[in-house]
Amino acid sequence: MAYNDSDFLVMAGEFWACANNYTVSDRDFVDATTPIRTTKSFSLSQMCSDLSMGGGTFELKGDEVTALTADATSIFFLLSAYLGEVTSNQIYIDAAKRSLGFIRTQLLSRQGLVMRGIYADQNRSCETLFDTYPYNTGFTIEALSILTGLSDEESDQEQMERTIAEATNTGGWQNGNGVVSWRGGYGDPHLIRALSTVYVRTPRTSELSAYIKSYLGVQFNAVTELATSGGSSIYGGQWNGPPVDKFEADNQTAAVQVLLAAIPLSEESTSPITPVNPVESDSPPPKKPSAAGAIAGGVVGGLTVLMMIGIAVIFIRRRRYRRYEPPMVSTFDVGHVQPIPPRQSVGKGRKNSAPTTPIYHVKERTSQRPTPSGGEASTPAFQATPVRSSTYVAEPERPVNQMTTAELVQVLNGRLQTGQWSEEELPPEYPQSHVGSA
After folding, report:
1. Which alpha helices (DSSP H) does 152-240 contain, by range?
2. What is d(CA 141, CA 143) in angstroms, rounded to the nearest whole number?
């Protein structure tokens, strides 16, 4: 993917506009002609716990989908933040703030983790889905790391630090050795990606940077020593082991995120983290890339496919953890607009503001490598002190190459929500665009 290609930016803007039509704004409570009001006949709850429901996002249209979920809201939050950074368009920035406001007031648990969702149907009386998943919290952390560079709100930085502390210390998401392990012992790549994003945007002299580096180092050592064996490039989904022989795309994708997250750690360390069996080479070492390059790649390259990845995440999570699934019991108005006109060139994002002093206290670890024998990783010495404070969408009958981007997103989302997807099935064709070369 070429950087600064206006076609990709326009596509990301179209994804955003599609998701914005699923996002509740103050206008939806007074105007019966909005996209949400015209597809959902039930009465929306304007307030829950005396706080606005504006800013939450539905996964699908239709009366059967009545919950504003963390799956949809956190991904829309992240896309808005990235678009706000790359374009400096205030509409995107305000949309990100509204998503964060909804997460803060309606979805944060007492421990500071992002809960699964809340029902917006007045008949459900603000019933909350209390489950917490690491990927939703990961999306929120990543979006917060972007938003802190776009606003002067110290509360955003503080929120990010508290959420990181909780996410990396909650017992249900990692084992006693500090290796990410939840729902059957699987790792979660989205939490790792979020922490890596925070790391490359945080001054290296801060305690937060040192803490994240230590945490990511444990994941890298576990993946390279416990989740694979004998120099194999096949990784298991359980990062604490045992290794597996069968190739599975989900496991490989999750492991790759950990390997990518370790790159900036080794580049800036006097004691680089190395794999178990490094490949020797006589060629000179590559030139060290700057942090700006990493950020540019994450911003421009990532937002093009972010919404499609988010939809796939919802499906993959439901497929992998279906047997573990618990029962589902448990004021700014952006309007419905599309800020990016066709073929708008990419603008420069705002410069990140320096983070405030983190709230972490990092202890020196005796060994950063887990011990591969017996399938147990070495017990990490780091500790953080946190501050507590489906329905299917009918597909159009015309050929897919004649559909709009929004319609393609809806078709894919509908297929994923109902499980009508196979790993062998190719994705739908997309309207042809003129893509620039790198």
Report:
1. 154-167, 189-200, 207-225
2. 5
Q: What is the pLDDT of residue 239?
A: 97
- Reading the block at residue 393, the tokens are 């969408």
| Residues 408, 400: Cα–Cα separation, whole Å | 7
Spatial CB neighbours of 426, under 8 Å, sequence gap ≥ 6 = none
User: Could you report the per-residue pLDDT of 241-266, keeping only the tens digit for each?
Assistant: 999 999 999 999 999 999 999 999 97
Q: Helix or strand or coil: residue 415?
A: helix
Our measurement of the distance from residue 391's CA atom to the centroid of its chain's CA atoms, rounded to an integer in Å, reads 24
Any domain includes 403: no
Residue 400 lies in a domain: no
8 Å CB contact between 121 and 59: no
Structure tokens at 322: 């279906």
When mean pLDDT is compared across 65-74, 179-188, 279-288, the lowest value belongs to 279-288
User: How far is CA 386 from its chain centroid?
Assistant: 21
Q: For residue 391, what are its two tokens?
A: 């329905």
Q: How far is CA 294 from each of CA 18, 55, 133, 258, 288, rounded to the nearest angstrom?
A: 28, 30, 27, 15, 11
Q: Is 275 exposed, middle or buried (0-12, 13-18, 19+ CB in 10 A)?
A: middle
Assess whether pLDDT exceeds 50 at residue 70: yes
Is residue 65 situated within a structural domain?
A: yes
Angle between the N-to-C axes of helices 306-320 and 70-87, in degrees from 0 to 180, rounded to the nearest 10: 160
Tokens read off for 219: 């994941």
Tokens of 218: 């444990």
Print the domain residue range for 161. Answer: 6-277+291-360
The whole-angstrom separation of Cα 77 and Cα 163 is: 15
Token readout for 222 is 């576990």
Residue carrying structure tokens 């706000």 = 84
Domain-located, residue 190: yes
- Model confidence over 79-103: pLDDT tens digits? 999 999 999 999 999 999 999 999 9
The total number of structural domains in the chain stands at 1
Q: What is the CATH number of the domain that holds 227?
A: 1.50.10
